[in-house]
Amino acid sequence: MSRALQLSRQFSKRAVMEALLQQAPISRASIAKQTGLSKQTISEIVRHLEDAGWVIETGRTNGQVGRSAVTYEVVPDAAFVAAVDLGGTKVRVGLTDLRGAIVREATEFTRPEGGQVVVEQIGRLCLQAAAAAGVGRERVRIAVVGVPGAPDPSSGRVRFAPNIPDFDRMDVAAALEAVLECDVLLENDVNLAVQGEVWQGAGQGLDTLAFIALGTGIGGGLIVGGELVRGADNAAGELGFLPFGADPFEAESLRTGAFERLVASAGIRARYRTLTGGTDAPGMTVPEIFSRAGAGEPAATQVIDETACLLARGVAAIAAIANPSLVVLGGSIGSRPEMTERVRALLPGCMSSPVDVAASRLGPQAALIGAAAIGLSHLHNALFGADAPEAKLSLPPPRQAGSKA
Amino acid sequence: MSRALQLSRQFSKRAVMEALLQQAPISRASIAKQTGLSKQTISEIVRHLEDAGWVIETGRTNGQVGRSAVTYEVVPDAAFVAAVDLGGTKVRVGLTDLRGAIVREATEFTRPEGGQVVVEQIGRLCLQAAAAAGVGRERVRIAVVGVPGAPDPSSGRVRFAPNIPDFDRMDVAAALEAVLECDVLLENDVNLAVQGEVWQGAGQGLDTLAFIALGTGIGGGLIVGGELVRGADNAAGELGFLPFGADPFEAESLRTGAFERLVASAGIRARYRTLTGGTDAPGMTVPEIFSRAGAGEPAATQVIDETACLLARGVAAIAAIANPSLVVLGGSIGSRPEMTERVRALLPGCMSSPVDVAASRLGPQAALIGAAAIGLSHLHNALFGADAPEAKLSLPPPRQAGSKA
DNA sequence: CGCAGTTTGTTCGGTAGCAGAACTAATAGG
DNA sequence: CCTATTAGTTCTGCTACCGAACAAACTGCG
After folding, report:
1. Using one digit for the tens of pLDDT, what is the confidence trace for B325-382?
2. A30–B contact, CB cutoff 8 A
3. Domain spans, chain B
């Protein structure tokens, strides 16, 4: 209630910025038509934005009848978002401008020490990227960091992040803020991947969809009504614990979920081993099993088929509960075309009106792009959305490959 | 975007009404403190509301230091909501005042003819209730009707409503509007039940919870972030189609879901019949099986245990995907304490941090109360929320049993 | 009883953000 | 060059709000 304290100051600045972002160069008159605000108001707002350096005059229209119009655009490098995808093995950093174009990218192996060492690694990568792009650090206004775990916004810790030592015992958010000197948002990496797929990937424009990342483990992200579903303890999308596949009441299922034990890579390899007469030898990697299946080997094919069947049941479960308009399959295993096709083929066998299924289009970049999306949205809210608590920014149209300045 | 056309007229009227609703008699000064608006503004808004008849002076404070304050309250009978719960066998109607108190209630057997006959039955019940409560029909501003099916807001039809003939072939919403001469909102009955449980039942105040209605069939409702999850085709919560229990890839599972075939009443009875040496006799009703289990009969106990185990898996599936803070069990079977207890006992066996489980507290009234909740929220939005698209009304504290005038 | 202190409510003046009408400016096409 | 058309500005005015000053009403204490 007391959030109505500072009331609708500049209610429309956001709307103007949005129009400015989406219809690249646009005149004030057109903005007025689109937003429904009066020409007068738009002129005023645009003047303010221009004075503040967010917007700039970039040209004039001509060709049509009537007076030619001055067109404006958002100044793309007035502020930047640092998008970070922290994985167990690699850190990926992308510096994104106000339009969402990735201006600079960098990747490194994640420092195995974890904790403060990784925090400083991320800080260094971001600042280096900014420096290399000729961007002063004060223009990097927010950093969004995807982590393989469940960030707890109140303590700044990251729970369930076995791959990054100490992240569950320190205030990661605060540490990063200290290094980067800007706001930092932590988010689960799969959640970012969903956002990425919605913005520029396989789920463009949809507002209800699910994402399944199948690889070493299995994880999911769910978007409902354009909003990420986090759940009560930030544990939404823990698909590994779906109660089928292995026996969910086995003691082992409490540690590694019943579903995960069978569909994820360890399960696939184990099934192949048993099927081929299971020596206790190291066994086959999953890509090898896939290629053998491609070559027609019956055992490999059977294992892949079984996996697809399980995955289809996972998809069906999500569909029964949340009824998304699309399920995007990602991760090293899920995004393989063989897998997506099989799942798609199986679904009509267990759902009367099967969900749409698509392979991730952004692959390993999804989380990075999602981080940029969230960062941009937050940035616009902070800068132009004084009131209107959490308006969703409808982001600019995906413009592939920014000028790698 | 063009929704910003008529802009923030009376941005705060809603906030004032909300305060007025929740802290029963309240002075203007206190409203000012709570909302953060100035005393001056509050006085103005309250004057308007009073002139329009929504609010009335009801007393003065005294006892504290300082000038005594005039206190105001919402005029409870300035407008009414007709809440309707249409079931296959019974129609239940409740007339609710602005505070949410049920002023009048009525129940009848649903007319088996369906279609227009049922529409007129509902209309008659509502108008009779209003008349009996001494309320002119013009004060009934909105009707919320819970139906056993999936209402399609664009066509006004109700899909998947086998129990009400013709409802899938006519514009039910329009027909009801014609009879009642007020706005009509159709909503799935389970969805209403969830809302009811959130407002006054087992899920009070929670903003992420699931509801499972287990009886003749099985259905679910999911609330995430305070918002109902409808899904892409209004088919969220079709728990019957969860891909376990029976074989999901059987042809039969396309018609009646794999999960529903086993957990719902037909499945329970079938399992009991096979277990007791399955004659093809009519068999036992579910309540009878429950009472035999209560009496210690092994076969009945086993069947109930199995059902609970299945239900627990259903709960686990929802928890894995959406991670609600509570799962409410309802329906004639789900809300039995034996069932809730068993499920609660089983969950630690298949989830490392088990969800809370509770039996429905409102029972068959849940949908009616949920309808009232939605109606009130809509009403307040329509009356006092000129802008601010779909603000959620935080409803007044549950005040049990209104004066049955 | 009367005054201090405290709280309520009103009056008055002022501001931000917007609309709308009237007007000026620039352009294309004939 | 004139007309139709579109872009942008100026001016007036409204609504919803704030803040300060002030009036009104009450409690409690000396």
Report:
1. 999 999 999 999 999 999 999 999 999 899 999 999 999 999 999 999 999 999 888 8
2. no
3. 7-74, 77-194+365-384, 202-361
The reply to whether residue B34 touches residue A2, judged by beta carbons under 8 angstroms, is: yes
The CATH class of B7-74 is mainly alpha
Strand D close to B41 by CB, under 7 A:
yes
**Which residue bears the tokens 């129990």?**
B163
Q: Which fold has domain A202-361?
A: Nucleotidyltransferase; domain 5 (3.30.420)
The C-alpha atoms of residue A41 and residue A46 are separated, in whole angstroms, by: 9
Kindly determine whether the C-beta of residue B46 is less than 7 Å away from any atom of nucleic acid strand D: no
Q: Which residues contact B205 (CB under 8 A, 6 or more apart)?
A: B198
The CATH number for B77-194+365-384, chosen from 3.30.160.40, 3.30.420.40, 3.40.630.30, 3.30.70.2740, is: 3.30.420.40
- Kindly state whether A345 is in contact with chain B, defined as any CB-CB distance less than 8 angstroms: no
Amino acid A394: pLDDT? 64
Residues with CB under 7 A from strand C: A 8-13, 36-41, 44-45, 60, 62-68; B 5, 7, 27-30, 39-40, 43, 61, 64-70
Q: Dump pLDDT digits (tens) for A156-167.
A: 999 888 889 999
Two tokens at A325? 């308009």
Which among B31, B230, B323, B328 is the top mutation candidate for probing chain A, defined by the most A β-carbons within 10 Å of its own β-carbon? B323
Q: Residue B298: which H helix or E strand, with range? A: helix B298-322
Q: What's residue B9's pLDDT?
A: 46
A271 with A305: CB under 8 angstroms?
Answer: no
Indicate the class that CATH gives domain A10-74. mainly alpha
Nearest to A23 by CA among A102, A78, A99, A101: A99
Following DSSP, what letter does each residue of B127-189 receive, concatenated? HHHHHHTT--GGGEEEEEEEESSEE-TTT--EES-TTSTTTTTS-HHHHHHHHH-SEEEEEEH
